Amino acid sequence: MRELTYVARRTVEWREAPDPRLRSDQEAIVAPVAATPCDVDSSILAGHGFIEPPFALGHECVARVVETGAAVTAVAPGDLVVVPWSINCGTCDRCRQSLTAHCASVPYMAMYGAPIGGSWGGLFSDLVRVPYADAMLVPLPAGLDPVAMASASDNWSLAWRLVAPHLKARPGARVLVVARGSIGLYVCDIARALGASEVLYVDPEPRHRALAEGFGAATAEALEPAPQGSFEIAVEATGRVDQLALTVKSLAPEGICESAGNHFRPGELPLLDMYLTGVTLRIARDNVRAHIPDALALAASGKVAPEKVVSDVIDWEDLPTALPEKHLKPVFVRAEA
Q1: pTM of the model
Q2: Under the phi-then-psi rule, with left for phi > 0, alpha for psi from -120 to 50, and beta for the rest, what region is 287?
Q3: Which residues is 128 bridged to in the sheet?
Q4: Does residue 85 sit in the same domain as residue 168?
Q5: CA 115, CA 118: separation in Å to the nearest integer?
């Protein structure tokens, strides 16, 4: 089989690898049919990552189950499934607490798309081994388009987690979104659908702002210092500490900020202001497996339109040339036999 391999800044190529084989009766082999780059993949391709190449890239996809072990009961060959980005067993103490990104049964940070906690390959591959199939794989609900849901492995489900639980606790809250990619746009869509009284989306890219306006958000090119009390909930997804600093300073007393940016560079936060305001800040590696069913259910409800964030639908064979190009949220699709 082939796996798409990141080899240098803005450079990826197909490399041959052995076909994955089942190593236990709890495993599955899947074939991605719709895969998309995560926002962090864009940073890696731009040369901002912290892992030296080469390595197999990709950790968001909908796949077709090809083969299952004898003990697998949740999915069967032929099923369409969402493949979570992190490797998790589903049975250890951490997994039972929904801390699936911190599974104690695998090396720390075990994941697809980067060789941090072992080498698990990437989801831009012709075939992928899933070690804990019943725990990891989530069947795609009937009627949902794999292209629209290609990001359910991470960004779509992460966006649900960033805002949905907070709006449940604070109905009608005002939401600030400071972003540079798909996560922020998904948050705008979800926040409006779940009853936010106001959503302000901040992004220097006019095309992104136009999409956010289509989701009912007000938009701005840059975040101006806001008076205290402007927003009860804020989401930062830029990877820039200066933008995170402005975001937390825009919060109302006891406001909540979720940071989904990958902060590869150091910076300073206004800690005294945050102390006086009583800010809650979470910068978290997402335990996405626990949120995928709820995020898929929202997508199936018809209240949201994640397909509008898909910027391009591109043939699988064009991955080496098209992935390094700048797209908001391209989805690479493979024709099935």
Answers
A1: 0.95
A2: beta
A3: 30
A4: no
A5: 5
